Amino acid sequence: MPSDEPTPIERTASEPMATRYDLVLAAIPLALLAGALAGMAAGVGTRPGVAVGGVGALCALGYAIFGDPPIERGGGRRTS
Which sequence ranges are marked TM in the entry (predicted)? Predict the structure, then answer.
């Protein structure tokens, strides 16, 4: 009898472990850091630079929540 539970996927060392959502989580602090560094390089200070970087971080967060959420639109869990 087939089981309703999905079989776990085995990963090898040669396969990347990062998913799309891992990359989004990495993009948020990187956008803030890039904004801070750009603000310092432009001579306007870190506070305006972090504010501009925050816009990029907000875009990454909006994509993860609304653009390609980890659940299906009908409320069920995503299988892939």
Answer: 21-42, 48-66
46-65 pLDDT tens trace: 999 999 999 999 999 999 88
Give the C-alpha separation, 18 to 26, whole Å.
10
The four Cα atoms 11, 13, 16, 18 give a dihedral, to 10 degrees, of 70
Cross-strand pairs, 77: 71
Q: Quick one: 56 exposed, middle or buried, by C-beta within 10 A (0-12, 13-18, 19+)? A: middle
At position 26, the amino acid (one-letter code) is A
pLDDT given for residue 60 in this prediction: 93
Full residue range of the structural domain in which residue 59 is found: 36-69
As for how many domains the chain has, the answer is: 1
Distance of CA 73 to the CA centre of its chain: 19
